[in-house]
Design a protein that fits this description.
Number of helices: 3
CATH topology: OB fold (Dihydrolipoamide Acetyltransferase, E2P)
CATH class: Mainly Beta
Oligomer: single chain
Largest sheet: 5 strands, mixed, barrel
Radius of gyration: 22 Å
């Protein structure tokens, strides 16, 4: 009888072990799957294409679509935010500052389709704390997707922007 109980217990343990849920996987920006969430994605996985991609420190927020990383001017790809003294300028600047505060680390991925620059600025997608700043800016009511660049930007087919292009 004890033998039968031991077998029953062993079978129960084995069945319980087989029904455990497996950890969720997360797909990094470059398509690599990792266990856990976006914090597990290696920084290099945020880089797409062949244009420049680098890490730096946010040194200034100019407005909702322009910031500086290591004092290098960055124009957010596909984003059109209000200019100084236009309605929504302060709100979009504050949103960008809340996601990428001055002094925070950023990953800058230059747009392969726009390497010629925009008024001396590098056109890119910027990630702060692994958050896509460009995507978050699209959620602001004052920000528009600049459709003029949908046919050239390497990012035009990404989830955060494709429906606007």
């Amino acid at each position: 009888m004890k033998f039968l109980l031991h077998i029953l217990l062993l079978v129960t343990v084995l069945i319980a072990g087989c029904t455990q849920t497996t950890p969720l996987t997360w797909v990094c920006p470059n398509g690599t799957e990792v266990l856990g969430g976006p914090s597990q994605c290696p920084e290099a996985s945020f880089c797409k294409g062949t244009a420049r991609c680098f890490n730096g420190t946010i040194t200034s927020i100019i407005d909702g679509d322009t910031l500086e990383v290591d004092n290098f001017s960055i124009r957010l790809a596909l984003i059109d935010a209000p200019e100084y003294n236009e309605e929504g300028w302060n709100e979009t600047k504050e949103l960008a500052s809340s996601i990428c505060p001055i002094g925070s680390r950023a990953i800058v991925d230059e747009d392969d389709g726009q390497t010629a620059s925009s008024y001396g600025r590098l056109v890119a997608v910027v990630y702060c704390d692994r958050i896509n700043l460009n995507a978050r800016m699209v959620t602001n009511k004052y920000v528009n997707v600049d459709k003029r660049y949908c046919n050239v930007s390497e990012f035009a087919n990404e989830d955060w922007v494709w429906k606007f292009c």
